[in-house]
Every structure is written in C-alpha cells, then in structure tokens.
C-alpha cells in the first residue's frame, strides 16, 4: 500500500501503517500515532484499562483534534 497523503502530493511512498479513521495508508512522516484507553471486562465485572496504539492520517488527526477541542468547551 502507498501513503494516501503522499499520493495527493504526487509522491509514491510505501505506507507503514493504516489510518484507523479512514483506512488510508500512511507513511512514517504522515502517520500520527496516539494512544487510546481500552477497557477490558464486562460492564458488570471488574475492568482493567490499557493504552492501545492508535494510528491516524494527517487529515483524521486534525479532525480528532477539533473534536477533542469541541468536547472540552
Ligand atoms: Zn506520506
Ligand atoms: Zn484518516
């Protein structure tokens, strides 16, 4: 797979990951790697949390940042 953001700039760069938001391939420089808290267990039972890796493309990372800002307002 190729990086979608690089394709829009007429570059062919192999992707190193896949955006979890839109499914586009992302290269090392366009990938935005964040973490998400994942809860384990049932709602009734004991739960544990762990940090999961979350890969986004530039576009989705910007959209997520806007959403995060909107939620804090
Ligand atoms: Zn790229
Ligand atoms: Zn994306």
What is the rounded Rg? 15 Å
Tally of extended strands?
4
Content of β-strand? 25-35%
Helix count equals 2
Large-scale geometry: elongated
* Uncertain residue ranges: none
Task: Provide structural commentary.
It contains two helices and four strands, in the order H-E-E-E-E-H. It is α+β, with helices and mostly antiparallel strands. A two-stranded antiparallel sheet has the order 1-2. The protein binds zinc ion (2 copies). One zinc ion (ZN) is lined by residues 19, 21-22, 24, 56-57, 59-60. One zinc ion binds at residues 3, 5-6, 13, 27, 29-30.
How do you describe this structure in short?
The protein has 73 residues and is α+β, with helices and mostly antiparallel strands. The protein has helices at residues 4-8, 58-72; strands spanning 17-18, 25-26, 32-40, 48-56.
Structural features:
73 residues; alpha+beta; two-stranded antiparallel sheet; 2 helices; elongated; binds zinc ion
Set out the fold topology.
Layout: H1 4-8, E1 17-18, E2 25-26, E3 32-40, E4 48-56, H2 58-72
Antiparallel strand pairs: 1-2, 3-4
The structure holds zinc ion (2 copies).
């Amino acid at each position: 797979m190729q990086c979608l953001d690089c394709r829009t700039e007429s570059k062919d760069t192999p992707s190193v990951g896949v955006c979890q938001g839109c499914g586009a391939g992302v290269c090392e420089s366009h990938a935005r790697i964040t973490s998400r808290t994942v809860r384990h267990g049932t709602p009734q039972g004991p739960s544990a949390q762990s940090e999961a890796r979350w890969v986004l493309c530039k576009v989705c990372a910007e959209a997520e940042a806007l959403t995060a800002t909107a939620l804090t307002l």
